[in-house]
# Entry
Amino acid sequence: MFRCLVRSVVLMMMLIAPVIQAQVPGAVQQTAAPLEEASDDPLGRSTPRGTVLGFLKATSRGDYDLAVSYLDTKQHGELARELARQLQVILDRKTSIELNKLSVRPSGDLADPQNPNRDLAGVASTPSGNVAIWLDRVQRGDAPPIWLFSEETLKFVPKVYEDIDNSLEIEQHFPTWLKARPFLSVAIWRLAVILVSIPLIFLLGSLLVRLLKPILVISAKRILGDAGIDMSQGLAMPLRLILFGFLFTIFGNYSYRVLGRNFWHNLGTVLLVFGVTWLSMKMAGIANDFVLARLKRIQSSDQIALAKLLGRLSQIGILIVGILAVLYLAGVNLAAALTGLGIGGLAVAFAAQKTLENLFGGIMIISDRPVRIGDVCKIGDVTGTVVDIGLRSTRIRTQERTIVTIPNGQLATMNLENYTFRDKFWFHPTVALRRETTGEQMRTVLEKIREILDKHANVESQTARVRFIGIGNASQDVEIFAYVLAPNYGKFLGIQEDLLLQILDVVESSGTSLALPTQITHLVRESDADARRPKEKATAAGEH
# Structure
């Protein structure tokens, strides 16, 4: 179980890599470039997000000389460095900043048309009230414009810093050697807190899942019966992922730094999105299986294929919504992304014409329902029973018990004969009686066969007819035309057998019999033939 959890976390970390990468100043420049021509600022100050991230990273390393470069201040030396340190404390302790919502465009978010060169970075909560943290777009000399923490905001920094109670700082409770020796630019005490917190979060999440599992099994059994117990087993991992997302989000609220809060918040949010998406897909699959089982019990074969299609489309739709949610959290412009998908979709459509043809063919077959699962039909030269109608192809089991797969795109254009849709079966034999059958015998045969058809319970008497249709070289033919009312082909064969046996009895009792194919050969002796030839010649001469 622990390995599965570790794999899940590693996968989620890989998935949120774009989010984390967006927090690096260099990455911000790459993101902003396609939107608007950005200035080539080496410190990443060409965008509001780049300025805030650059300042936070510089202060987290203790490089306050670099941090001063992100301030619109006229102070220098120790005063400027102290101002940067105080702003760092304010941002880390009392300011709510959503880094992913900061603009990545050189022009800012343009939310305030009255002042397009100012952006709101966050709001600091102090005992005396809330204080806005502003960024201003300034231009120094001939250099391109850059974003800096505004001079107006920096005026309030010393007063806000005095209002902050630093007595509750966690850092001062740790030994000096843990605070003074950073590892990979992170204080050792912070790494220790992370290493202790993560196992506690996994342990707490596992305990919560174990507590919820009996409730889930009981609920599934009450709704779906015994089959629901097996179906509910697959919901444990999505629930565990959702719980981890909640715990990471809560843990992020108590993080010591702004970057830490945003990191854990992003991680928790991504876990929540994927957990909810995974759980929704599982629930959609369980609901679809439940509906299919119910349709199979009531033998509603015409709705089974439609239920399968809706189940697959619902899961695909849930997955797409989840992916779009993650892209939104990563700061991707969904409008531009969807526009790009539309243009790319045209290229994909041209490249995958056959796939799309089969897809729409499957939708047409399921919606128009020329065939259903379980129908006996003839498609082209293939005759068999339809066993599955998918989005790409339809599978037919032939009488030889083989499976023939026909692409839906071809199926939509082929001649299709559905035997299951027959409401009645055609009974149409031709009875050939002997050439020597008399008129009286023929009348008896016709009368008694009509009487059989009229009295039989499974024959449609209104359309039944028996006619003497012709005299051949070796037989006299009687045509029988009738419709047999039978629920299926097997029942029809039994009724047809009964009718044919009664017709044979009628023919036998009338004194005649069925005609047999005969061939008459006349044999003439050679001497008799020679004797007739002179007479034929003499007769011919007398005529002349």
